[in-house]
Amino acid sequence: MMAKHTPAPYRPRSVYGYALYIGSNMVFFLYLVWAVVPDQFLHEKLGLTYWPLKYWAIALPIWVLTAVATFIFVIYPAMNMVMTPDIDDMRTIKDEYSLVQNGYVPGGIPPVSDIPIADVCRKLYLKPHINGYDNR
């Protein structure tokens, strides 16, 4: 069966979701056992001789949260800044998705289009008395 492009559950997705749910609960339970139960009990009663140090029960989640926070607040914004074109690049003004205003009906609603950068600058930065332009 081909993968459907829908968020609705279908058979393979529900099976994988259930397996992931059960697996994640088992891993969390083992983590709690490792972090809370004393080493003597694990060794004497259960016969488990090797477990990582309890230090890692606290250190590992802190390292993961620090890595996620670093990604969210440093790396992701830096990637966006690198991918954004410079302010004087032509791609910030016009690209293949730009809509040019073709026609205008007097008294009507103008069609959807991009506003030319000259009109934006004139409206934002030009004072009304310069060159007789009315800035209303």
TrEMBL record:
<dbReference type="InterPro" id="IPR016542">
    <property type="entry name" value="PIG-P_GPI19"/>
</dbReference>
<keyword id="KW-0808">Transferase</keyword>
<comment type="pathway">
    <text>Glycolipid biosynthesis; glycosylphosphatidylinositol-anchor biosynthesis.</text>
</comment>
<dbReference type="GO" id="GO:0016020">
    <property type="term" value="C:membrane"/>
</dbReference>
<dbReference type="Pfam" id="PF08510">
    <property type="entry name" value="PIG-P"/>
</dbReference>
<feature type="domain" description="PIG-P">
    <location>
        <begin position="13"/>
        <end position="125"/>
    </location>
</feature>
<feature type="transmembrane region" description="Helical">
    <location>
        <begin position="15"/>
        <end position="35"/>
    </location>
</feature>
<keyword id="KW-0812">Transmembrane</keyword>
<dbReference type="InterPro" id="IPR052263">
    <property type="entry name" value="GPI_Anchor_Biosynth"/>
</dbReference>
<keyword id="KW-1133">Transmembrane helix</keyword>
<keyword id="KW-0472">Membrane</keyword>
<comment type="similarity">
    <text>Belongs to the PIGP family.</text>
</comment>
<dbReference type="GO" id="GO:0005783">
    <property type="term" value="C:endoplasmic reticulum"/>
</dbReference>
<dbReference type="GO" id="GO:0006506">
    <property type="term" value="P:GPI anchor biosynthetic process"/>
</dbReference>
<comment type="function">
    <text>Part of the complex catalyzing the transfer of N-acetylglucosamine from UDP-N-acetylglucosamine to phosphatidylinositol, the first step of GPI biosynthesis.</text>
</comment>
<dbReference type="GO" id="GO:0017176">
    <property type="term" value="F:phosphatidylinositol N-acetylglucosaminyltransferase activity"/>
</dbReference>
<dbReference type="InterPro" id="IPR013717">
    <property type="entry name" value="PIG-P"/>
</dbReference>
<protein>
    <recommendedName>
        <fullName>Phosphatidylinositol N-acetylglucosaminyltransferase subunit P</fullName>
    </recommendedName>
</protein>
<feature type="transmembrane region" description="Helical">
    <location>
        <begin position="55"/>
        <end position="76"/>
    </location>
</feature>
<keyword id="KW-0337">GPI-anchor biosynthesis</keyword>
